[in-house]
Amino acid sequence: MSDTHHLTATINIDHTPDEVFAAVTDVRKWWSENIIGDTAARYDEFVFTDDSKYAGETAREKKEGIRFSRFRITEVVPGERVVWHVVDSDLTFIDDRHEWTGTEVVFDITGTPEGATLHFIHKGLNSAESECFEECSRGWKFYIETSLRQLITTGTGQPFPKY
């Protein structure tokens, strides 16, 4: 999972690139049921938070939870690629609470004879400089390699549950 430059994960799966793409863009089914906003089209914005006190508030008001991040989808190529830009973040479990702000979350999908390969990278989080690298690696590893894989293969992921 770790990379000397950025946080990465790769899965090979016996499903088509289009099936992988559909699962990646259905973020509520593999990352968090509490996602606020749209998660599939270019320029969509969405918020991830794991604190119930933010339910119903606008994205700009969500700044005090354990984890808060606001994403803008900057690139969408169906069956091939999705890029999220982290517009704002507040990670209360580390000193540099805005460490994710300005980073990019990239999902690259490539067709293979067996199905598809999904290569995930969180650009801007690296082992040398990122305070949350180890904890974030564990989290992304679970959500990409376990939850997203299960969503693709069984139709049911393991997202952070609805509060």
TrEMBL record:
One Pfam family of this chain: AHSA1
InterPro entries linked to this entry: ASHA1/2-like_C (IPR013538), START-like_dom_sf (IPR023393)
Record Gene3D superfamilies: 3.30.530.20
Activator of Hsp90 ATPase homologue 1/2-like C-terminal domain residues: 15-151
CDD domains membership: SRPBCC_CalC_Aha1-like
Similarity comment: Belongs to the AHA1 family.
Protein name (record): SRPBCC domain-containing protein
